[in-house]
Amino acid sequence: MDCLSKTLKCMVFLFNLLFFFLGCAIIGVGIYVKIKMSAYFDLFGNNTITSATILIIIGVIVAIISLFGCCGAKRENACMMYTFGTLVAVILFVEVVLIVVSLIYKDEFKHELEKQLKEDLNNYNYNSTEGRYGGITIAWDKLQQNYQCCGVESA
């Protein structure tokens, strides 16, 4: 093996090791957000998938893909490197599609978010022992205290 191929192998291994640690850090941030911001998630309805869950899923995906790159480079396994390359290409394609979709539907997303927040603000003082209305009051109180705001569009 010549010097260039050894250098490339080492670089692929090190970059993928870095991405593995970044994936683990993203998982940690997702868990932190899930714990610290759980009171605010009531504002978004009964969604089971929150931004924290998405962060954890992305972190796991990044860690797994980077492990394919690390192991493939270290063991010089062509199958693992092809799998790694294919997964990176799929992720690149998905990212491009998500960017295009988010640019196309950004106004609809903003409108839906404002609609949900206004609906929740209308249910602010609704006292219920069951359902999510108690959580809405707590979430709005925390939001108003932490960010000194008291409305959706303006005060």
Helix-strand layout with pairing:
Elements: H1 3-36, H2 51-75, H3 78-104, H4 106-122, H5 133-147
Helix pairs in contact: 1-2, 2-3
Can you walk through the features of this model?
This protein is mainly α and 155 residues long. The protein has 5 helices and no strands. The protein has helices at residues 3-36, 51-75, 78-104, 106-122, 133-147. The longest helix is centred in the N-terminal third of the chain and has 34 residues, at 3-36. It is elongated, with a radius of gyration of 22 Å. The termini are far apart.
Q: What low-confidence regions span 5 or more consecutive residues with pLDDT below 50?
A: none
SSE succession: HHHHH
Shape summary: elongated
Judged by helices, strands and strand pairing, the structural class is: mainly alpha
Q: Tell me the distance between the termini.
A: 68 Å
How many helices in DSSP terms? 5
Which percent bin holds the helix content? over 70%
Mean pLDDT: 82
Number of strands: 0
Largest sheet: none
Question: What percent strand?
Answer: under 5%
Rg, Å, rounded: 22 Å
Brief digest:
The protein contains five helices and no strands. With 155 residues, the chain is mainly α.
Supply the key terms.
about 160 residues, mainly alpha
